C-alpha cells in the first residue's frame, strides 16, 4: 500500500507556530482523510524551524466504491398525474441518472423522491492533490504574512514543496502572484552543515534522508537529544541542569541539529537575586541554568546551538558577551533600586495609569487597602495581622516603578519581595507582595498565608469590580484584563485556604462603593458580577474538581435565586456539597434516595410551601390525615429535623443522607403501599396537607441539593 510524503519548506518559522501547527495537522489530516473514505496505517507529523512535513503510511490506491442515498424534491412536486415534472427531470440530470432510477419513499415529512447512487472510488493521488492546499491554508496562528506580489498568507515565506506518493512526484502547484511553488522531490538540508539540496528517493526515506543532511525532523527525538545533551553539559562543569519544560519545548523548535554549548559568566554576578539571573537566562536568552547540589546557581549556562559543533568555543564566547551585558544591566538596576526603601516608590505610582477611567496605580493601591481592610474584618483576623495586611496592600505595587521591573516586567512582585526584605519589612509582608499576584494561571500555586491571601483577594476583586463597573465585560476569547483568571483566583484562594468569606455581602459592599464614586457605572453591576462568579464556580467544579454537570446544577441551581445567593454566601459549603454528591454517586448511596426525593420534589412543585420551611407542626394538620402512612410520614419528618440542623450547622451531609435513606421506606408506603394516598385529592385542604408533607421532605433534601436537577445515572 502506498506511502505519501508532504514537506512544506519555509524560511525560519516562529517556534510557537511550529508547536501549534504540529497539533493542528495531527487532528486535521486524519479527519480529512476519513471524510474522503481513505484509511491509512499511520499519520506522522514532522517539523523543524524550516519545514512542516507529514508521512502517511498504508494508503489505498483509491477510495472504495460506495453507495450513496440522495434525497430529492417532494414526490408531489416531482410527479403530476403519474408523469415526471421538470423538478424530477432536473434532479435526474443533476445526479446523472435515468428517471427510471428514481424511487418514491415515505418520510416523516411526506413522500420524497430518492436515488441510490453507485459512486466509484476516486484515485488517492487525485484526492491528495485537492487536500494538500487545504492542509496548508487552514493552519492557524499569529502574525501571518504575505510575500512577493501574491496573496498567500503564512507565518513565513514558503520556499519549496515536496510531494511524493511512494517514489513518484505528486504534481502540485501553489500560485502566489507571479511566483508558483511547484512540488518535486528536492528538500533542503541544514543551512550551515549541509548547504546543498537533498533528493528524497521515496516517501518512507524522508526522516533518514534528512538526517544525513543534519536535519532531525522528529521534534520528539530532538527534545530527547536536547535534554540529554543539557544534562551531560551541566555534569561536565560539576553541576546539574535546570530544564524548564516550557523552555525545552521552545528550544526544540528553534533548531534542526541541536548542539549543547557551555558558557560561563563572572561569579560576582551571583550576588544578584537568582530570579533575575534566571530571567535573563531563560526568558531573554533561552539558556538553561546550571545549579550546584544545593540548588544554587553556578556561574555557567547552557545554550542550544543550531550551528557547527566545531565552532562551539566561538558560539560560547558570543553568548557570554551577551549575558555579561544583560547581567551588568541587572546589577546596575538592582543596586540603584536598593538605594531607597520600597515605600519611597509609592509617589511614582501616581504617574502610572491603571485604566483611563479608574485613575493611576496609586489609586488602585488605595482601593486595594480599603478592600483588604473590609475582607480582613469580615474574616475577623487579629489586629496585628490586619495591620500587616494593610501594610502589604500599601506596598504590593511599589516595585512596578523600580528600574529592575521596568526592564524585566516578569519580575513584578518578585523584586518587591526582595526590596521589602532589604528595607526591613517583616517576612509575611514581603511574601504577600510576591504572592498577591498568585495564582497567575490554572496550574499555579496559591498564596500561602492569611496576609497574602487577603491582599490577593483585595487586588483581584478591585480589578473585577472596577472593570465590570465600566461595562468592560469579557466576551468570547477577548479578556484583556484577565477577569476570568481573576475570578478563578478568588474562588481558588477561598477554597484552598478554607476562608469563611461571604462573597455575596462583600460584592454588595464593593459594588455600592464603586457606584457611589462612579455615577455612570454599569446598571445591575452586582447581578452581572455575581452571575460571572457563578459561571466560574460552575466551570471550576466541573473542570478542576471533576464534578458531574448535573450535580453542579444541583448545588448551584439553575434559575433558583436562593441557591445562587447561598453559593456566594458560602463557597466552602457549595464546594463540599458538590464533592459529597459526587462521592455518594460513586458509592451508590445517591441511588438509594434519588427516586424518592426526586418524585417528592416534582410533586411538591404543585404546592405552595416555602422552600425554607422545615417544621411539620407549622404547616401540617394531622386532623386531615386519612391514612396511617400520612402520620408515619409526619413522624419521620420530625425525626429528620436534628439531622438537617446538623448539616446546616456543621456541613455533616453524610448524617443527613443517612437520615434521608431511613425515611425512604416510609415515603414509599405513602406513595405505593397498602395505606397509600392520592396526593392530588379532590379535597383542596387534604391535597395541600399532602403536598406540604412532600414539600417538607423536598426542603430537607434541598439543604444538600436540588434533587430536581439531578439526572438519574
UniProtKB/TrEMBL annotation:
Recorded GO CC terms: cytosol
Enzyme class: ligase
Subcellular location: Cytoplasm
GO terms for MF: arginine-tRNA ligase activity; ATP binding; glycine-tRNA ligase activity
Keywords: Aminoacyl-tRNA synthetase, ATP-binding, Cytoplasm, Ligase, Nucleotide-binding, Protein biosynthesis
Keyword check for Nucleotide-binding: yes
GO biological process, one term: arginyl-tRNA aminoacylation
InterPro entries, alphabetized: DALR_anticod-bd (IPR008909), Gly-tRNA-synth_bsu (IPR015944), Gly-tRNA-synth_heterodimer (IPR006194)
Family: Belongs to the class-II aminoacyl-tRNA synthetase family.
HAMAP family tied to this protein: Gly_tRNA_synth_beta
Subunit structure: Tetramer of two alpha and two beta subunits.
Protein name: Glycine--tRNA ligase beta subunit
Organism placement in taxonomy: Bacteria, Bacillati, Cyanobacteriota, Cyanophyceae, Oscillatoriophycideae
Gene: glyS
Amino acid at each position: 500500500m502506498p506511502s505519501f510524503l508532504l514537506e512544506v519548506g519555509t524560511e525560519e518559522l516562529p517556534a510557537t507556530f511550529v508547536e501549534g501547527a504540529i497539533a493542528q495537522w495531527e487532528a486535521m489530516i486524519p479527519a480529512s482523510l476519513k471524510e474522503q473514505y481513505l484509511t491509512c496505517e499511520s499519520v506522522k507529523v514532522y517539523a523543524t524551524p524550516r519545514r512542516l512535513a507529514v508521512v502517511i503510511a498504508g494508503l489505498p490506491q483509491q477510495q472504495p466504491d460506495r453507495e450513496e442515498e440522495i434525497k430529492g424534491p417532494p414526490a408531489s412536486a416531482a410527479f403530476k398525474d403519474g408523469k415526471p415534472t421538470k423538478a424530477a427531470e432536473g434532479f435526474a440530470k443533476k445526479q446523472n441518472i435515468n428517471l427510471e432510477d428514481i424511487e418514491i419513499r415515505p418520510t416523516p415529512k411526506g413522500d420524497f423522491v430518492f436515488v441510490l447512487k453507485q459512486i466509484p472510488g476516486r484515485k488517492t493521488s487525485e484526492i491528495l492533490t485537492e487536500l494538500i492546499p487545504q492542509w496548508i491554508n487552514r493552519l492557524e496562528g499569529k502574525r501571518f504574512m504575505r510575500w512577493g506580489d501574491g496573496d498567500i498568507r503564512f507565518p513565513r515565506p514558503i520556499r519549496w514543496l515536496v510531494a511524493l506518493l511512494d517514489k513518484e512526484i505528486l504534481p502540485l502547484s501553489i500560485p502566489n502572484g507571479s511566483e508558483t511553488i511547484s512540488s518535486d522531490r528536492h528538500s533542503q538540508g541544514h543551512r550551515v552543515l549541509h548547504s546543498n539540496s537533498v533528493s528524497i528517493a521515496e516517501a518512507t526515506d524522508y526522516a533518514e534522508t534528512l538526517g544525513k543532511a543534519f536535519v532531525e525532523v522528529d521534534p520528539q527525538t530532538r527534545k530527547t537529544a536536547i535534554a540529554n545533551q543539557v544534562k551531560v553539559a551541566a555534569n561536565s562543569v560539576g553541576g546539574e541542569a535546570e530544564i524548564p519544560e516550557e523552555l525545552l519545548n521552545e528550544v526544540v523548535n528553534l533548531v534542526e541539529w541541536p548542539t549543547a554549548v557551555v558558557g560561563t559568566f563572572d561569579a560576582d554576578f551571583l550576588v544578584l537575586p537568582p530570579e533575575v539571573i534566571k530571567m535573563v537566562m531563560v526568558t531573554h536568552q533561552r539558556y538553561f541554568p546550571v545549579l550546584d547540589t544545593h540548588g544554587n546557581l553556578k556561574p555557567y549556562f547552557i545554550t542550544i546551538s543550531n550551528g557547527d559543533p566545531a565552532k562551539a568555543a566561538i558560539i560560547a564566547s558570543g553568548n557570554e558577551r551577551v549575558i555579561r551585558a544583560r547581567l551588568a544591566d541587572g546589577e546596575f538596576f538592582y543596586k540603584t533600586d536598593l538605594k531607597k526603601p520600597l515605600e519611597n516608590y509609592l509617589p511614582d505610582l501616581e504617574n502610572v495609569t491603571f485604566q483611563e477611567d479608574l485613575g493611576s496605580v496609586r489609586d488602585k493601591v488605595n482601593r486595594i487597602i480599603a478592600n483588604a481592610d473590609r475582607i480582613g474584618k469580615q474574616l475577623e483576623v487579629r489586629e496585628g495581622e490586619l495591620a500587616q495586611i494593610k501594610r502589604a496592600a500599601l506596598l504590593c505595587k511599589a516595585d512596578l516603578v523600580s528600574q529592575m521591573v521596568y526592564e524585566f516586567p516578569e519580575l513584578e512582585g518578585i523584586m518587591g519581595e526582595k526590596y521589602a526584605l532589604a528595607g526591613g519589612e517583616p517576612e509575611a509582608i514581603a511574601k504577600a507582595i510576591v504572592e498577591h499576584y498568585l495564582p497567575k494561571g490554572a496550574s499555579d500555586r496559591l498564596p500561602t498565608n492569611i496576609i497574602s491571601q487577603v491582599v490577593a483577594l483585595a487586588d483581584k476583586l478591585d480589578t473585577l469590580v472596577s472593570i465590570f463597573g465600566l461595562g468592560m465585560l469579557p466576551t468570547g476569547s477577548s479578556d484583556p484584563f484577565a477577569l476570568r483568571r481573576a475570578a478563578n483566583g478568588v474562588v481558588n484562594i477561598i477554597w484552598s485556604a478554607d476562608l469563611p468569606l461571604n462573597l455575596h455581602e462583600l460584592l454588595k459592599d464593593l459594588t455600592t462603593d464603586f457606584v457611589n464614586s462612579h455615577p455612570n457605572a454599569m446598571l445591575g453591576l452586582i447581578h452581572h458580577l455575581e452571575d460571572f462568579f457563578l459561571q466560574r464556580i460552575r466551570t471550576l467544579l466541573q473542570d478542576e474538581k471533576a464534578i458531574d454537570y448535573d450535580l453542579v446544577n444541583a448545588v448551584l441551581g439553575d434559575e433558583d435565586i436562593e441557591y445562587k445567593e447561598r453559593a456566594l454566601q458560602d463557597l466552602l459549603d457549595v464546594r463540599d456539597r458538590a464533592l459529597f454528591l459526587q462521592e455518594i454517586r460513586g458509592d451508590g448511596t445517591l441511588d438509594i434516595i434519588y427516586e424518592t426525593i426526586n418524585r417528592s420534589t416534582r410533586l411538591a412543585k404543585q404546592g405552595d410551601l416555602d422552600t425554607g420551611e422545615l417544621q411539620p407542626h407549622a404547616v401540617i394538620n394531622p386532623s386531615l390525615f386519612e391514612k396511617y402512612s400520612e402520620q408515619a410520614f409526619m413522624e419521620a419528618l420530625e425525626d429528620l429535623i436534628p439531622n438537617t440542623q446538623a448539616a446546616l450547622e456543621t456541613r455533616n451531609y453524610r448524617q443527613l443522607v443517612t437520615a434521608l435513606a431511613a425515611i425512604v421506606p416510609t415515603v414509599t408506603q405513602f406513595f405505593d403501599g397498602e395505606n397509600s394516598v392520592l396526593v392530588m385529592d379532590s379535597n383542596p385542604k387534604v391535597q395541600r396537607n399532602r403536598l406540604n408533607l412532600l414539600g417538607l421532605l423536598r426542603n430537607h433534601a434541598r439543604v444538600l441539593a436540588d434533587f430536581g436537577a439531578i439526572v438519574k445515572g
